């Protein structure tokens, strides 16, 4: 790439924006101060390293079949290094539980900080912050589309324990890196056909969430967020964690609310939620 051509193009854009009253240098300085939390799954289409051969679940529409996808944590970190080298400023990585870096098989409800130490070492070396997510999908106990709202208490308990463990991993990130991790909880729970009972699953989810967030964690280390959805593949008629449900939960429990731009099509847009 010819650097002179890039600079000339920028200077032209700078002049055009100045005519509109926009100072591009000020805008770039503000942008450089904002940290982007890059999704880890953009490197391999949400396969992760717990069981990469397992098919995706939870209505996630990604194939993982594109050439050159990361197959190991080291390959993913190398790909991320390349991405961050092209982004001015200091940025973060939004890591999922299924991206643990360990030499042994770990049940999802038993993940520990020790299974993510290599990620922390990498983040320290590169001045990155880390955020975290529970992974309530692509698992034999999520195949029927329900996790924290499942009618079977044993299944619910498994996902409650997984979610509690994930919060401790997030707190570990925050302590080690000196910047609080946002631990974001999204579940795929929903039903394809119109359900007879809409209230029951939400009552179970409410009780499960209160269990998950019961252990107190210093917000200097971990910030909890919940994520809503309008509909999903396989849950077209009913999603337990709707926008209305999580908005009420976030306000009443003082949690962060995550808005996913892809979770509101085709009949709603995220712009209405933000504005």
The number of distinct β-strands equals 8
Count of helical stretches: 8
> Average pLDDT across residues?
92
What gyration radius follows from the Cα positions, in whole Å?
Answer: 20 Å
Helix content: 25-40%
Word description of this protein:
The chain is α/β, with parallel strands linked by helices and 275 residues long. It has two domains: 1-34, no CATH class; 35-274, Divalent-metal-dependent TIM barrel enzymes (TIM Barrel, Alpha-Beta Barrel). Helix content is 38%, strand content 11%. It has eight helices and eight strands, in the order H-H-E-H-E-H-E-H-E-E-H-E-E-H-E-H. The strands form two sheets. The chain has a six-stranded parallel sheet. A two-stranded antiparallel ribbon has the order 5-7. Strand 1, helix 3 (73-85) and strand 2 (92-96) form a beta-alpha-beta unit. The model has no long low-confidence stretch (mean pLDDT 92).
Features:
single chain, 8 strands, alpha/beta, 275 residues, TIM Barrel, two-stranded antiparallel ribbon, 6-stranded parallel beta sheet
Q: What secondary-structure arrangement, pairings included, does this model have?
A:
Blueprint: H1 3-19, H2 24-32, E1 37-39, H3 73-85, E2 92-96, H4 117-126, E3 129-133, H5 153-177, E4 181-185, E5 190-191, H6 199-212, E6 222-227, E7 238-239, H7 243-253, E8 256-258, H8 270-274
Parallel strand pairs: 1-2, 2-3, 3-4, 4-6, 6-8
Antiparallel strand pairs: 5-7
Helix pairs in contact: 5-6
